[in-house]
Design a protein that fits this description.
Elements: E1 16-21, H1 23-40, E2 48-54, H2 58-67, E3 72-81, E4 92-96, E5 106-114, H3 118-128, E6 134-142, E7 155-159, E8 182-185, H4 187-191
Parallel strand pairs: 2-3, 2-5, 5-6, 6-7
Antiparallel strand pairs: 1-8, 3-4
Helix pairs in contact: 1-2
The protein binds xanthosine-5'-monophosphate and magnesium ion (MG).
Xanthosine-5'-monophosphate binds near residues 115, 165 and 170.
Amino acid sequence: VVQPHSDRTDPYGDDIEAVLITQDQIQTRIRELADSAAARYADIEDDLVLIGVLKGAVMFMTDFARALPIPSQMEFMAVSSYGSATSSSGVVRILKDLDRDIADRDVLIVEDIIDSGLTLSWLMRNLATRSPRSLQVCTLLRKPEAVRSPVDVADVGFDIPNEFVVGYGLDYAERYRDLPYIGRLHASVYSD
Ligand code: XMP
Ligand code: MG
């Protein structure tokens, strides 16, 4: 466990108890994930379509797209999952749909984190009905629960323990998305 914070002042003061994955570790792993994906899509004809789910996947999406050695196009969806703030039910409503048709396109869902996998498996089924040429998933983080999910994930950045994490797109009450690393909050943050 690396303690926060290196060269810059932490905007959230003492809220972060520990850094679990550093900025360097994230960026290094993203280059590996991008190379792995590019190898799978070496012979596609159109540009790869990346689909990110707002808002958590935004940081990963932008860094991943820039690390990819092949051209990609960015699409975003916003969904709301019925359930509590920290777990999902698998019942999903689309708040913002894709702007374009993905029929016959190679599509890679770029996910921030897979926990139960319920949201993702719903999304896979929904996107599959639009007849993409291929449909795969790359996730930065995966929790232990996800192992029981039926979704087949092409690449995983980091397997993490079953604890709530923030940073690099992931929030608690909309805060901490802007941190460049993945960390754990002090318990006092939840009780305040
Ligand atoms: P499922 O269970 O459907 O849920 O795979 C995935 C979604 O749950 C949220 N999630 C988290 N958000 N820190 C977060 O900020 C976490 O540790 C965490 N675990 C799950 C997230 O919205 C993800 O897309
Ligand atoms: Mg959230």
